[in-house]
Amino acid sequence: MLRMLVFSSSLLLAGCASIPLATMLQFSGFDVNAFQNINPSEVRAKISIDEPANVKAESVDLNLALNDNKGSRTFTFPLALLEQNKISADTGLFFSSPAKTEYVFKLAPSAIESFQEVQGIIAANSGGGFKLSVGSEFEPLPESVNEITVSILLKLTEQSDYVTLIDEATVTIERDN
Length: 177
Known about the structure:
single chain, alpha+beta, seven-stranded antiparallel beta sheet, 4 helices, 25% helix
């Protein structure tokens, strides 16, 4: 029984390893009122990905899973590319990091109105909970690339800092044969 508990704890910790503790703590106090105060035009998402991988910019979206008295619903808000920057590889004495591409997105014009509608839905149905996530597809990768490292950050207000959702997570590439 103890082995199973240790094994389960290890899996749980490994599953959360790419989600910083600071992020969990910062969002623990995030509630319906905080969500109501978000100005949709200030929402930003940042994706950092190892080269040679590239994000399909037109596929990136912000997802909100809402669980309230009307059941579970998912809302998808398309994001528009705001800027794209190349970051050079960095080789130091004790560490090195590969070259990366960093993308910054904002809510697409069509998504701003939808986001405001969802804010109204959440206000009308107080109670329940919601989860925010950022989704993306990748451009085709060379066959030699088997894994990439990706970070995803979210900024909900102009005054706030980016909050790390996923920190340097290694993603194994699965190909259709």
